[in-house]
């Protein structure tokens, strides 16, 4: 990997990258299906909001674990 790639990658944390990708994918799906994000936010029940938070937290943990394992393998 070139130095410029390493510098760019070091500025973006895995968590923020994952969230950005997820945000883009969700936005595209909403746009394709003519879904108004503000309307969806107000219509979601607290239970569904919590379920979404749990999924995001779980995915964030999985990504962080993967990154840590990759770092450990790379340092060997």
Strand content: under 5%
In whole angstroms, how far apart are the ends? 17 Å
What is the CA-atom radius of gyration, in angstroms?
17 Å
What would you call the shape? elongated
Give the domain tally: 1
Order of helices and strands: HHHH
The SS-based structural class is mainly alpha
Q: List unreliable stretches of 5+ residues.
A: 1-10
Number of strands: 0
Briefly characterize the structure.
By secondary structure, the protein is an all-alpha fold. Helix content is 86%, strand content 0%.
Per-chain topology:
Elements: H1 3-11, H2 14-32, H3 37-43, H4 46-75
Helix pairs in contact: 2-4
What do you see in this structure?
By secondary structure, the protein is mainly alpha-helical. It has one domain (3-75). The chain is 86% helix and 0% strand. It is built from four helices and no strands. The chain has helices at 3-11, 14-32, 37-43, 46-75. The longest helix has 30 residues, at 46-75. The protein is elongated, with a radius of gyration of 17 Å. The model is unreliable at 1-10 (pLDDT under 50). Keywords: Capsid protein, Virion. This is Spore coat protein.
Pick out its properties.
disordered N terminus; mainly alpha; 86% helix; elongated; 4 helices
